[in-house]
Write a structure and sequence with these properties.
Chains A, B: Its cofactor is pyridoxal 5'-phosphate. Two copies of one chain form a homodimer. Chain A is of the alpha/beta class and 411 residues long. Chain A contains ten helices and 14 strands. The longest helix of chain A is centred in the last third of the chain and has 25 residues. Chain A is globular.
């Protein structure tokens, strides 16, 4: 039932599993970091030891994701929700500097809505005002039942504006289990070829739940990529930003022209000018995430994780598919749009879902309950979830199917 | 030179020392929290185990600080700098709902400027616009040299506005070592008696570096008290808020009347309505701070810490005073306005300060260098710094004085 330290298998959607070896290293760092005689939570963020660690963390992300010199890597707090606001405020400031005469009506924000999180992001843009928020495409229109987020819509439906202040999408929808395909040939890949070509495209991507699980397609074509750390790389409390230089703008100059003022902690310029140290950062979360990405590099980097994550997702979806054919499971997401990181499905029949979840928990597999807004089962397959752990779940699913079949035969 | 785990004595200003017993407990929690089989950084913030911990944390603060039911305790991210903006935006929204017709000119924000942090807070209010930012009093005017923050100004100089949207002060100025006295009779106490009496006073206090080092005078008369955790109670990445109910306002309704929109993560209403769980909080920082305040309660609560902190501060200032009489040290802050938490002084003579700091470091006492903006020596005396550790520093200071005297005698 349990592994070392009485640990269970954690399929939770976030905060989520971290590598045990990292946790053990962090145990030491908590009382004495890098031989300083102080714990990592007790050391000054302006000490040379922490600065060296931060530099290494930045480098390990830059190298593994192949981030070009045109883009800064910044660290902040506040999670994805903080960035819902920050991307809007910073990109509205940028647009104001580019097009000082544009009215709020002419300042268009393009949102691609493929799930709960991109929907919330668009709502926040509307709350903040000062622009016209456009839904480029709403995936619910293309769903099986007309109301679920269960697909990446057809490319023909992505009608981007000619000169938007930003174009926003969420690469992986954690709640709904919908993700853009990374194979550029797939109909569910993000339609980069349809983006306006007339300028440095202000393309924003929320990569919170798929950050560093595999390479990022067309990374250099993005204006901002952001991710809360608490899925693949660390504890909650750290947000990683990859920001193209032209999006780090003088927000105060823009405010003088009429753009909304940007609170200091949300300003990309404040972060960039201070090397992410304008005020005290979340040192402990940075430390743990730094250990995770260092370990990733030692394990072979993203090619290794991409390969393992592909296998994990493929075999899990195969097991769900088998259950679907036997009338026990039902996939919630349309073929081709399924997330590698969050696999969602239903267990059919009265009380069957509870039975499935309780049985899994008895075998030490936790965190499988779907998000409260959509129900069902959700299996999160982040980097720290091993292939062996997925195999254990699949074996359980097979036993569950066999049991269901024998119950049905007896009935 | 070192204690258990090779640890040194940490007099740093923040992030700063934490109790070793808490760090050791956190080592266990990192791999298995509350018997869940998951580490604290890996567990869902919506799990019943985390909710129970969060409730206990809130209770331990409420009980020890005697927070009345009129005030909510909220947890967020972004530190004091985040609150520089948040208090302004939320209180401007409140004022707009109370006085919808007031122009920006008539919307007055009163700032008491006694040091680097309150100065920065006032600057952020000016950046955000939509109001008239007034400096009620600037302590530099009353300084020995006309430019240093070295005092709490005379009460006669605190001329508050009649109907301000907020009144802001910083209880303890970490950089400058200036603090309001807690003895209500002291001329350096905050002049609560001069506040406007016509309404629920919108009094804001930054308690970042003195939070939970002793009781908060007139807590119930405050509209908002906030504190970054990384001084007395925990790691960086957690901000604690105590907010009176009338300051938790419908910021969207205020925006419709013309107030500035408030980004979701800065809205007190969003935090309050969700029990501080609108989005994923900094679980790990909350956990460690929760352990600290629980341990404080077990040790006797604030009366115990107040007494110990008083003794620590008194004996340290006595040692500085002795050095001053011998012409070796010089106090930077005027008598009566000295901080209990951050004692700042100079070591006189060429190269003497470096010698003092190097000598201390050799004996395992670190973090004594003053803030880069003001120089000198700064001794931070937060809760986790023991009286025994202060005694060790004082013994070192006495030896340093003796040595200086013999050098002088020889010269």
């Amino acid at each position: 039932m349990s592994t070392d330290h009485g640990r269970v298998i954690n399929f939770g959607a976030g905060p989520s599993a971290l590598p045990l070896s990292v946790l053990e290293e962090a145990q030491t760092g908590l009382v004495n970091f890098a031989g300083t005689g102080m714990g990592i939570a007790e050391i000054s963020h302006r000490s040379k030891e922490f600065q060296a660690f931060l530099d290494g963390f930045e480098r390990d992300i830059r190298t593994q994701l192949d981030v070009p010199p045109t883009h800064r890597i910044l660290f902040t707090q506040g999670g994805g929700t903080g960035q819902f606001s920050a991307v809007v405020l910073n990109l509205l400031a940028r647009y104001k500097l580019l097009r000082p005469q544009a009215s709020a009506e002419d300042t268009v924000l393009d949102y691609v809505v493929t799930g709960s999180w991109s929907k919330k992001a668009a709502e926040e843009a509307r709350r903040l005002g000062g622009s016209t928020v456009r839904t480029v495409v709403d995936a619910r229109v293309y769903s099986k039942d007309g109301k679920a987020f269960d697909n990446i819509p057809p490319h023909a439906e992505f009608a981007f504006s000619a000169d938007p202040a930003l174009i926003y999408y969420c690469e992986n929808e954690t709640v709904d289990g919908v993700e853009f395909a990374h194979d550029a040939q797939s109909p569910a890949a993000f339609p980069f070829h349809l983006l306006p070509q007339n300028t440095l495209v202000p393309l924003i991507a929320d990569y919170s739940s798929s950050f560093m699980c595999r390479p990022i397609p067309r990374l250099a074509d993005h204006a901002v990529i952001y991710a809360g750390a608490q899925k693949n790389i660390g504890p909650a409390g750290l947000t990683v930003l990859i920001v193209r230089e032209d999006c780090i703008v003088d927000v105060d100059a823009a405010a003088k022209l009429g753009a909304a003022p940007v609170p200091l902690i949300l300003s990309y310029k404040t972060l960039a000018d201070s090397g992410s140290l304008y005020n005290t950062p979340s040192v402990l979360a940075i430390y743990m995430a730094g250990l995770v990405v260092k370990r990733m590099k030692e394990n072979g980097g993203l090619p290794y994780y991409e390969e393992v994550n592909r296998r994990k997702a493929n075999k899990l979806y195969a097991a769900v598919h088998e259950g679907e054919q036997k009338g026990v499971f039902r996939r919630k997401v349309q073929q081709g749009s399924e997330s590698w990181m969050n696999a969602v499905f239903e267990v059919l029949g009265e009380g069957a879902e509870k039975k499935f979840l309780d049985g899994a928990e008895k075998e030490g597999m936790k965190g499988l309950k779907g998000h409260r807004s959509v129900g069902g089962v959700r299996v999160s397959l982040y980097n720290a979830v091993t292939e062996q752990e997925v195999d254990k779940l699949i074996a359980y699913m097979a036993r569950f199917l066999a049991e269901s079949a024998s119950v049905e035969a007896a009935a």
